[in-house]
Give the backbone structure.
Amino acid sequence: MRVLIVEDEPTLARQLKAALEGAGYAVDHAADGEDGHYLGSTEAYDAVILDLGLPEVDGLTVLDRWRKEGRTTPVLLLTARDSWSDKVAGLDAGADDYLAKPFQTEELIARLRALIRRSTGNASSELTAGDVRLDTRSGRVTLAGDPVKLTAQEFKLLSYMMHNKGKMVSRTELIEHIYDQDFDRDSNTIEVFITRIRKKLGPDIISTTRGLGYSLADGA
Ligand code: CA
């Protein structure tokens, strides 16, 4: 899953990026509203964390533009403490959730998880496919109850597939959702990750449809 942070406070942005990467997300950062709007309009994100007070273009305008362009990416707004009018304006402009500053990083990550879960139609924080379980809270993956160790990239790929169970996912889509902007993207590595995941979780976990992409075997 890939997330965009639009935040102009360098320290907070850096901390958030590190925390989200640690939680298994691919993360991009924009430091002003103009860059944020551009990235959100041209790149594929599973969720956006958007600060309201931003240089160039304010967060509310950015959100309003995205929604008018028809972008439905879930947006979590960062608002000033006690400003109920900001929260109302944000929700009315199409925000999916908000969090007042200062906040605990754990709460932000939990809200983000919930947003992504809802937007992909998953009710539970535990995703399953046959004997495979992925706990989105702990980032743990098990096969028939036994823990399975995945690399960061394998986890990102599996997590995207499990959030989108039942959908055909193209290689391009996978690349867009598991790498951040600065990553040197090589589409051949996707096949390598799929092979490794099959080795760890069973050959039937992901099936390939030539020319179309990959889908997760439900198994149950
Ligand atoms: Ca700000």
Observations:
- Residues 8-9, 51, 53-54 surround calcium ion (CB under 6 Å).
- Helices lie at 10-22, 33-42, 59-68, 84-92, 105-119, 152-163, 171-178, 188-201.
- The chain has eight helices and eleven strands.
- The chain has two domains: 2-119, 126-216.
